[in-house]
């Protein structure tokens, strides 16, 4: 491609509404332009990047045995009602009516469509297993779209769905997809981790997220320093240090009984600990949750954070959210900030960190008051489990020696073991070898194509612009002709351009009538991995300048240039 013909309107300054690095640089590099909140037009450079990611994804999915299909973006409500998600999914589901008043939605994901397809076509175990995938535009009506392609409302996604006869077969395919995803992100040149994760509103038995490591990542993940365990902090289990979680009830009878103390206007952990001159870790944090199984109070040590996902799991609930003040008052007789477990009637769950506490401080279930000398096991009983948010230094649950390191990450892929959640509700059944009808066992596997591109920028950039990994760069090489009026250097630049193109190397020819500094700044901003500069001075030495993005400039004989580029890009020999 010739830069003089390329539609790439670069910007010198970042637009005011761009918050993160990838959003700023994709706008400045002329890769995207905003149409509406969370909705963008992809310009040629942006298209090239996403197509490169798509090609890697498509190749690896097919090598892993998946078959490509294309499903409709507009989906009738009947399919979503069959699965039960029409009412459950929430406001992120964009609903619309056709001219006849029939309900449809823009598909944010396609479990319903693909399950309906397979249910209508597959009847025998002989036709399974099967894995179908597509690369398609999706729409989710995010409450707060932001960060460009990182969290848009309209986005490109690869979603795949597998169907199986047995759990063993389904788990084998899950591991096959996990390995394929690792190859995909390795080929994209990204530093990533596969971490255990919550299944969210997709549902299913277990899942893994693929996180690109970046300081600007929205998600916190923990990884063991000694073994390969890694998890999103929402999902991470915590091993118990020696002594933590042991009951204190045997010694409790010899300790003072609870004493009510006045704490007017002191509701937060920090306020109460400062007022009573005690450390936050001596307080028990008590939160009331409303769930589909009824209200529940959750407890954790005062210096720790409660994990809402773990509360939901511990309550065996489909959903859990902090209760309104009306419900808190109805359950405890007091407003939030003054509630506690002593004397509470109802379901009570507590983190392991609470069970070994001695002489704790809790809310007194009375406005403006707290209790001292509270003893778990003597003054209240609870179901103990892991409820807290994992953090750096916590003990690994999988090995005896390891502890957690904390990272920031950007989710670019997510795989789920669905089980029979959709096949049972939508009638996706098969006849086994004995003629008995059984529900298919399913898995689903998603990759955000645009998010992968944006995450690559978050991980690979400097003050000059983007530093694309070679496999997903919009162009891998650019030839900059410094003096467009110099016939000999322009002729050499043209010769190198066609020589690289003949080798199948995506190459940009900067033939603009601009100063060398302007060209170099644009090429660094766009992130072209390798720059070749041809000038009158280099011609005198029968050489060209080669500069890898972020590296040093060096002279290479122009007869060796194509071979040197092939070496830099690590292109395997043909044939």
Helix content: 25-40%
Low-confidence stretches: none
CATH architecture descriptor of the largest domain? 2-Layer Sandwich
**Topology, number of strands:** 31
Major sheet, described briefly?
9 strands, mixed
Global morphology: globular
CATH class of the largest domain: Alpha Beta
**And the CATH topology of the largest domain?**
BirA Bifunctional Protein, domain 2
* Class from helix and strand fractions: alpha+beta
Cα gyration radius (Å): 29 Å
Global mean pLDDT:
93
Name of the CATH superfamily of the largest domain: Bira Bifunctional Protein, Domain 2
In DSSP terms (H or I, runs of 4 or more residues), the helix count works out at 17
How many structural domains does the protein architecture include? 3
Strand content: 25-35%
What is the CA-CA span between the terminal residues?
27 Å
Structural description of this entry:
The protein is α+β, with helices and mostly antiparallel strands. The chain has 3 domains: 46-208 and 412-455, BirA Bifunctional Protein, domain 2, CATH 3.30.930; 249-385, YbaK/aminoacyl-tRNA synthetase-associated domain (YbaK protein, Alpha-Beta Complex), CATH 3.90.960; 475-568, Rossmann fold. The chain is 28% helix and 28% strand. It is built from 17 helices and 31 strands. Strands 3, 7, 8, 9, 10, 11, 12, 21 and 24 form a 9-stranded mixed β-sheet that branches. The protein has a 5-stranded mixed β-sheet with strand order 16-14-15-17-20. Strands 28-27-29-30-31 form a 5-stranded mixed β-sheet, with helices on both faces. A hairpin with a 2-residue loop joins strand 25 and strand 26. The radius of gyration is 29 Å and the shape is globular. The two termini are 27 Å apart. The mean pLDDT is 93.
């Amino acid at each position: 491609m010739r830069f003089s013909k390329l539609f790439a309107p670069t910007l010198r300054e970042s637009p005011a509404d761009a918050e993160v690095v990838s959003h700023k640089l994709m706008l400045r590099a002329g890769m995207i332009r905003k149409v509406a909140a969370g909705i963008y037009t992809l310009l040629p450079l942006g298209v090239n990047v996403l197509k490169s990611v798509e090609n890697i994804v498509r190749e690896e999915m097919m090598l892993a045995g998946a078959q490509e299909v294309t499903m409709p973006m507009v989906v009738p409500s009947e399919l979503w009602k069959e699965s039960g998600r029409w009412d459950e999914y929430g406001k992120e589901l964009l609903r619309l009516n056709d001219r006849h008043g029939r309900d449809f939605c823009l598909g944010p994901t396609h479990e319903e469509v693909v399950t309906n397809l397979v249910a209508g076509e597959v009847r025998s175990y002989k036709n399974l297993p099967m894995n179908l995938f597509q690369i398609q535009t999706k729409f989710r009506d995010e409450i707060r779209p932001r960060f460009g392609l990182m969290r848009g409302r309209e986005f490109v996604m690869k979603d795949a769905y597998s169907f199986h006869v047995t759990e063993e077969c389904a788990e084998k395919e899950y591991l096959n997809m996990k390995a394929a995803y690792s190859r995909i992100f390795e080929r994209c040149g990204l530093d990533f981790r596969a971490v255990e994760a919550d299944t969210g509103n997709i549902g299913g038995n277990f899942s893994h997220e693929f996180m690109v490591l970046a300081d600007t990542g929205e998600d916190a993940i923990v990884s063991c320093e000694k073994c390969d365990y890694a998890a999103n902090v929402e999902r991470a289990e915590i091993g118990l240090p020696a002594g933590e979680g042991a009951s204190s009830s045997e010694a409790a009878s010899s300790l003072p009984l609870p004493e009510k103390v006045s704490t007017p206007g002191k509701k937060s952990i920090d306020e109460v600990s400062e007022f009573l001159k005690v450390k936050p870790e001596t307080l028990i944090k008590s939160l009331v949750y409303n769930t589909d199984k009824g209200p529940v109070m959750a407890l954790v040590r005062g210096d720790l954070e409660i994990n809402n996902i773990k509360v939901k799991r511990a309550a065996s609930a489909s959903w859990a959210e902090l209760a309104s003040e009306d419900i808190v008052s109805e359950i405890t007789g007091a407003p939030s900030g003054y509630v506690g477990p002593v004397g509470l009637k109802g379901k009570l769950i507590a983190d392991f960190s609470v069970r070994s506490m001695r002489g704790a401080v809790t809310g007194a279930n009375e406005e403006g008051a707290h209790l001292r000398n509270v003893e778990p096991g003597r003054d209240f009983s609870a179901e103990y489990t892991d409820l807290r948010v994992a953090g750096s230094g916590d003990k690994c649950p999988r090995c005896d020696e390891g502890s957690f390191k904390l990272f920031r990450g950007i989710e670019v892929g997510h795989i789920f073991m669905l089980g029979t959640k959709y096949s049972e509700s939508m009638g996706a059944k098969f006849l086994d070898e004995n003629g008995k009808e059984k529900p298919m066992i399913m898995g689903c596997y998603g990759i955000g194509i645009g998010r992968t591109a944006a995450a690559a920028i978050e991980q690979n950039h400097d003050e000059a612009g983007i530093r694309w990994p070679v496999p997903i760069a919009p162009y891998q090489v650019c030839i900059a002709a410094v003096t467009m009026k110099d016939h000999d250097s322009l002729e050499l630049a043209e010769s190198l351009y066609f020589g690289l193109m003949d080798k199948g190397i995506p190459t940009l020819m900067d033939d603009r009538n601009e100063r060398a500094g302007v060209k170099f700044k644009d090429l660094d901003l766009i992130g072209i991995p390798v720059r070749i500069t041809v000038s009158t001075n280099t011609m005198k030495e029968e050489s060209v300048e080669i500069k890898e993005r972020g590296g040093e400039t060096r002279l290479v004989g122009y007869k060796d240039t194509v071979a040197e580029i092939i070496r830099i890009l690590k292109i395997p020999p043909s044939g």
